[in-house]
Amino acid sequence: MKVEFAPVHIPLARRLQTAAVFQWVFSFLLLAQCCCGIFITLFFGKYWLLPVLYAVWLYFDWETPQTGGRRSKWIRNWTVWRYFKDYFPVHLIKTSDLEPSHNYLFGFHPHGILVAGAFANFCTEHTGFKELFPGFTPYLHILPLWFGCPFFRDYAMSVGLVSASKKSVSHVLNNDRGGNIAVIVIGGAEESLDAHPGNLTLSIFKRKGFIKMALKYGAHLVPVFSFGENELFKQVENPRGSWLRTLQERLQKIMGFALPVFHARGIFQYSFGLMPYRKPIHTVVGKPIPVKQNLNPTLEEIEQLHQTYLQELRTLFEEHKEKYGIPDHESLSFK
Ligand SMILES: *[C@@H]1O[C@H](CO)[C@@H](O)[C@H](O)[C@H]1NC(C)=O
Ligand SMILES: *[C@@H]1O[C@H](CO)[C@@H](O)[C@H](O)[C@H]1NC(C)=O
């Protein structure tokens, strides 16, 4: 294999962008494990009181990721996130005004490998969310198990991440004054296993929980399509039925999260590593589908709204695909 090295002379801004993305990939892949490791190690050293105090705090703070979390405007506005979004770069695009007296549920597609677009747009202040959607607070819902990890959970909550549990989504959507946005990556971990460059398959047919939530709270549904999300990494071939896919699906059932085997570039060379490629992400926020509150929806009503959502998602994709380099004959498939 021929290794293609990065040039020696690279402008400082680009180096900082690479560093910003490196720390983010590290946080995603290893920081939780490091935090748990440090927490356990501390118990056996002379600073054992520290983890004991933290454990007491954790006991009282356990529910916070389900009740809106604990965000820090300051951390969301860190300059490191500006370099992060400039690396790809990430763009947020609005197609319709939203009404701040309502709550909204954004369905985000596709998951990609590390959901970089959702993070940049909804967990940092550097892609213009505040200017595009004044009066709104976005909450990005992630797997609850992330919040079981000491220290890491505080960092995650500081950027506006909250749990994806029912209770947590309810908390966000059940706001009388409106102005809340629950961002849910509908395809979840399962979809990351299809995150190969060029793939347009979304795991959505069986996913109806978000429809029920929207009906229960009368939250308007907004499809969001993030062009470029699947282009950031290559993934080892894992077609359905292959041994790798079977193993991944089994592990996902047991652990709740998926393990796509991915690779892209490194820090100093472009041939292998876990750093994403510098490829643009365009996250397009669609038009809202008005939803009337319905505390006891019938199966048909749920089905109907699900169908409407799929149609609107398809329309959004079709209207914008040309601008983002998707050939005319390609379209979304749902599974
Ligand atoms: C982020 O920081 C900049 C200054 O660096 C400031 O102008 C801006 O208002 C801040 N944004 C938020 C949302 O706090
Ligand atoms: C995308 O993923 C689906 C589901 O695994 C697969 O059937 C399809 O062939 C893939 N398409 C491309 C272009 O990789």
From TrEMBL:
Give start-end of the signal peptide: none
Superkingdom of this protein's organism: Eukaryota
* Pfam families noted in UniProt: DAGAT (PF03982)
The cellular location(s) given in this protein's UniProt record come to: Endoplasmic reticulum membrane
- Pathway connected to this protein: Glycerolipid metabolism; triacylglycerol biosynthesis; Lipid metabolism
Q: What is the phylogenetic placement of the source species in the record?
A: Eukaryota, Metazoa, Chordata, Craniata, Vertebrata
EC nos: 2.3.1.-
Family annotation (InterPro entries): DAGAT
Write the record's keywords in alphabetical order, separated by commas. Acyltransferase, Endoplasmic reticulum, Glycerol metabolism, Glycoprotein, Lipid biosynthesis, Lipid metabolism, Membrane, Transferase, Transmembrane, Transmembrane helix
Reaction catalysis annotation: a 2-acylglycerol + an acyl-CoA = a 1,2-diacyl-sn-glycerol + CoA; a 2-acylglycerol + an acyl-CoA = a 1,2-diacylglycerol + CoA; a 1-acyl-sn-glycerol + an acyl-CoA = a 1,3-diacyl-sn-glycerol + CoA; a 1-acylglycerol + an acyl-CoA = a 1,3-diacylglycerol + CoA
Q: What is this protein called?
A: Acyltransferase
